[in-house]
């Protein structure tokens, strides 16, 4: 949130606690299996930043669909949505 405030973002994204728990926990388990405690720490940090930052990319796309103020907090939805927004923006 501090980065969004420092960049004068018009939207401050607060990630959902349930999504952070399950996505970050899963990432931590896989990170621990492949990289030990360092893998768990780095993996969970990256997913935490992605959970907060990726919805900001789709925020304008949702406003164009008439559902401004909505976001999807999961990383996979945001990556696929940003990709589809980019592809469909070429044809629009």
Tell me, briefly, the overall form: globular
Mean pLDDT: 86
Radius of gyration: 15 Å
Which spans of ≥5 residues are poorly predicted at pLDDT below 50?
none
Strand content: under 5%
Q: Distance between termini?
A: 33 Å
Helix content: over 70%
The H/E string reads: HHH
Question: How many E-type strands?
Answer: 0
> How many individual domains?
1
Task: Please give the count of helices.
Answer: 3
Q: What oligomeric assembly is this protein in?
A: single chain
Main sheet characteristics: none
Protein name: Ascorbate-specific PTS system EIIC component
InterPro entries: Ascorbate-PTS_EIIC (IPR051562), PTS_sugar-sp_permease (IPR004703)
Keywords: Cell membrane, Membrane, Phosphotransferase system, Sugar transport, Transmembrane, Transmembrane helix, Transport
Main location: membrane
From the structure above, extract its key features.
92 residues, mainly alpha, transmembrane, transmembrane helix, Ascorbate-PTS_EIIC, phosphotransferase system, membrane
Write the layout of secondary structure elements.
Elements: H1 2-6, H2 17-64, H3 75-91
Describe this structure in words.
The protein is mainly alpha-helical and 92 residues long. Helix 2 runs parallel beside helix 3 (75-91). The chain has helices spanning 2-6, 17-64, 75-91. It has one domain (19-91). It is 76% helix and 0% strand. The mean pLDDT is 86. This is Ascorbate-specific PTS system EIIC component. Homodimer. Belongs to the UlaA family. It is a multi-pass membrane protein. Keywords: Cell membrane, Membrane, Phosphotransferase system, Sugar transport, Transmembrane, Transmembrane helix, Transport.
């Amino acid at each position: 949130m501090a980065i969004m405030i420092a960049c004068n973002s018009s939207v401050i994204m607060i990630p959902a606690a349930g999504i952070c728990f399950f996505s970050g926990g899963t990432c931590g388990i896989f990170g621990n299996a492949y990289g030990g405690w360092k893998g768990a720490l780095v993996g969970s940090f990256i997913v935490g930043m992605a959970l907060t930052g990726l919805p900001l990319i789709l925020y304008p796309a949702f406003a164009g669909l008439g559902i401004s103020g909505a976001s999807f907090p999961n990383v996979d939805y945001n990556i696929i949505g940003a990709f589809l927004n980019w592809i469909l923006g070429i044809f629009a």
